Amino acid sequence: MKLSQPLYNVYERSLAGAIPADKLPQHIGVLMDGNRRWAAQLGESTKHGHEAGAKNVVDFLSWCRELGIPMVTLYMLSTENLKRSPAELADLLDVIENLVGYLAESKVGKIRPVGQLTSLPASLCQAFDAAGEQTEEISDLQVNIAVGYGGRQEIVDAVRELLKEEAAAGRSMQEVAAGLDIEDISRHLYTKGMPDPDLLIRTSGEQRLSGFLTWQSAYSEFYFCEALWPDFRRVDFLRALRDFSNRQRRYGS
Q: In which residues is substrate bound (predicted)?
């Protein structure tokens, strides 16, 4: 049964009030899946779906800011996405570039790209540079945008940078291997200096991570939602947060 708007508003407020502030995640990763299926159901173009998804990003970040969640990482473009048809890829890159510009102008949060940026068009890299400068002083919400991102590739790149650094310092491979620890890898990841995500949310009903934050999600909690990303509502987000707040995190134990 579909609730009337007044009852829906009451339900939403009740959900929000049931989540203790001290149990909110401090870093949320989101796999925004379902834009293409959403558009196909409406008989619209794939680009229309990506544009609808981008609009929901703006709403989602406003919800995070209202709740005081300080960090969000959004999975927007995987390394696999870069292999899509040239026309679809061009549309997707255009939507992302426009979204980055809008987020920078609206100053919703500090914008940071996360991924293999050398694989991206120069115009998108320039948009990220400009967004970083425009939002550098924002401290209450950091928005990491994962573009040209692949979890396995990130680990390969981290190890490569570590080995180059150690070689430049004159250390042998035997010395590197003997002293290697988890933090050595972590400080060379695309997300170096950032806390690992507490909660990963994936929309569209798919229950896999698709290479998103492979290293960083070792102790994350996962929440899978049936809604396609453009249909993901604040109430869906609050349900995810309520579910997270009720879990007992074990960190591998």
A: 34-38, 50, 78-80, 84, 202, 208-210
Q: Which helix (H) or strand (E) holds 108?
A: none
45 is an annotated ligand-binding site residue: no
Q: From CA 30, how far away is CA 40, in angstroms rounded?
A: 22
Q: Rounded CA gap, 105 and 141, in Å? A: 15
pLDDT, average across residues 32-39: 97
Four-residue CA torsion sign, 167, 169, 170, 172: negative
| Predicted local distance difference test score (pLDDT) of residue 3 | 59
**Looking at domain 25-245, does it have CATH number 3.40.1180.10?**
yes
CA pair distance 34, 145, nearest whole angstrom: 18
> What pTM did the predictor assign?
0.93
Catalytic sites, residue numbers: 33, 81
Provide the token pair at 83: 């292999």
Does the annotation flag 38 for ligand binding?
Answer: yes
Does 188 belong to an annotated binding site? no
Lookup: tokens for 117 = 């940026």
User: Which of 72, 66, 60, 62 minimizes the C-alpha distance to 144?
Assistant: 72
